[in-house]
Amino acid sequence: MMNPGKRSLLCALLAAALLAAVPVGAPQAQPATATPSAALPDFADLVDRLGPVVVNIRTSARVGGPAGGGGNVPPIPEMDENDPFFEFFRRFFPQPGPQQRPGPGQRGPREREVPRGVGSGFILSGDGYVMTNAHVVQGADDITVTLTDRREFKAKLIGADRRTDVAIVKIEASGLPFVRVGDPNRLRVGEWVIAIGSPFGLDNTVTAGIVSAKARETGEFLPFIQTDVAVNPGNSGGPLINMRGEVVGINSQIFTTSGAFAGISFAIPIDEAMRVGDQLRATGRVTRGRIGVQIGPVTREVAEAIGLAKPQGALVSRVEAGTPAEKAGVEAGDVILRFDGKPIERESDLPRLVGGTKPGSRVQLQVWRKGKAVDLPITVAEMEPETTARRPDQPTPRNGAQANALGLTVSDVPADRLKEMRVRSAVQVDAVDGAAARVGLRQGDLILAVNNVEVQNARQFNDFVGKLDPKRNVVLLVRRGEQSNFIIIRPQDRQ
Predict the structure, then answer these.
(1) 245 lies in a domain?
(2) Is 174 assigned a catalytic role?
(3) Rounded to 5 degrees, what angle do the CA atoms 286, 292, 298 make?
(4) Is pLDDT of 157 > 90?
(5) Which listed residue (135, 252, 349, 433) is catalytic?
(6) pTM assigned to the model
(7) What is residue 184's three-state secondary structure?
(8) How many CB atoms lie within 10 A of CB 206?
(9) Cβ–Cβ under 8 Å, residues 171 and 273
(10) Phi (first) and psi of residue 117, to 5 degrees
(11) 165 assigned to active site
């Protein structure tokens, strides 16, 4: 054992050696710290404040037994515990218990409620008006609104407008928290925004991103706010919120080739939605102006040919007989530059301006004709109301085609529609029956894939369906408008 004296001497020598190894004037070691950078936004306070104004919306349809037959229709196909969708449906769409004999005032065994879908919405006023997407409540017999405090209300549909995809429902409640409406025109590209909604039924889910474009043209009636905020099925109808805590849009659509979020989502500007919502609250319907012209874009080549300084306005390709445009003297080949004093920068500006004008209003129309601007007074007429899509109760299949094992009658999609819908291949639904009708498929839907296998044409689709196991669930990727969703169906459900 080393004696204490030698141990002390050794320690002293080691300490001296260490000190000698450090250059004179060397800086002392400091704890590692991150380089200061721009702080990322904190959404916590925003979510705490606005979370309670966002609601979950569930819809259902009342269905009876199959036509011409007895028996009951199960709202959801029986599922194997090993099925990947079993847990999802168990949690969010619980099966009803054993059937009971109906009591006084109850529906009989031939009528049952079938879940149709889950969406989102937000409270507009303390007395219970809620805004959402029209496609969330379309075709629903019952609408249930759930608040963040878990209170549930049966909602009444006040009105829905399919052109803008805006709907208003009402619940019987008072003293509710409600949103503050912002100005989407103040948005800046690159600005942070958040979405709150119920993707896949997961209530009050928060996602964040930035504004990618302010007025993205998608061929719809309105220009959209484009963001990279994660939006998935169930987010529809929920609010897009800026960092000031103001609602600036309604999350409505996503661009996808797979059915899942692909980094691009679209929101309806809240100012446009509120104009529609105010009409729905007042009258239950939306009236729009109409002047009766068919229009196209003004290209650079056209502008140079007719003497316009830049490509702008809407080129009139046809004037409909007996319309305000014909009476005002509008001619094919005119370029509409202004409507009611407002400039027409792109052709899409004109339908929005005309549609937002009260029918019967007399306004000035400025057109470019033979190298000069001409002012024409015009009286705006009312656009014909929307027609309700035919329900699939009595389908009319094309070319005598028969429904397959899923209850679907399909046909090939014309190439121009594939291009318009931005899909490589699909089949379109001509008629629905049985299981297909019960899970909410509709005439006009596009089916993109079956069990993750891309659909090429109607023949391939029917051959594939004919080989499916009738005891296994089938997953269809369905395109409706700009949205793609997965729908679960089982072949044997068709009766």
Answers:
(1) yes
(2) no
(3) 110
(4) yes
(5) 135
(6) 0.61
(7) helix
(8) 18
(9) no
(10) 170, 175
(11) yes
Residues 230 and 268 occupy one common structural domain: yes
The residue out of 357, 382, 407 marking a domain boundary is: 382
Answer yes or no: are the C-beta atoms of 137 and 161 closer than 8 Å: no
Q: Tell me the β-bridge partners of 453.
A: 450
Residues ≥6 apart with Cβ < 8 Å to 83: 472, 473
Q: Strands, DSSP E only, in 20-132?
A: 54-63, 112-123, 129-132
List the catalytic residue out of 120, 236, 252, 484: 236
Determine how many CB atoms are found less than 10 A away from the CB of residue 403: 19
Determine contact, residues 165/133, Cβ cutoff 8 Å: yes
Confidence of residue 463 (pLDDT cuts 50, 70, 90): confident
- For residue 230, what is the DSSP state? -
Instruction: Tell me the sheet residues that pair with 297.
Output: 314
Residue linked to tokens 């009951």: 72
Annotated active-site residue in 161, 165, 203, 433: 165
pLDDT at 167 over 80: yes
**Phi-psi bin for 28: left (phi > 0), alpha (psi -120 to 50), beta?**
beta
Burial class (CB in 10 A: 0-12, 13-18, 19+), 256: buried
Task: Tell me how many domains the chain contains.
Answer: 3
Residues 424 and 335 reside in one and the same domain: no
- The verdict on residue 3 lying in a domain is no
pLDDT greater at residue 428 or residue 474 = 428
**Residue where one domain finishes, among candidates 260, 286, 312:** 286
Q: And the tokens for 185? A: 């025109």
- For the segment 363-416, what is each residue's pLDDT rounded down to a tens digit? 999 999 989 999 999 999 998 765 433 333 334 444 445 667 788 889 998 887
For residue 178, the one-letter residue type is F
| DSSP character at residue 38 | P
Please say if 135 is a catalytic residue.
Answer: yes
Greater model confidence, 494 or 361: 361
Structural domain that includes position 445: 398-493
pLDDT of residue 84 exceeding 60, the answer is no
- pLDDT at residue 64, rounded to an integer: 55
Name the residue among 211, 214, 241 with its Cα closest to residue 228: 211
What pLDDT is stored for residue 146 in this prediction? 96
Instruction: For residue range 186-207, list pLDDT tens digits in order.
Output: 999 999 999 999 998 899 999 9
54: CATH: 2.40.10.120
Instruction: Enumerate long-range contacts of 64-71, CB under 8 Å, 24 or more apart.
Output: 64/110, 64/111, 64/112, 65/110, 66/434, 66/495, 69/495, 70/110, 71/495
Pair 187, 252 in one domain: yes
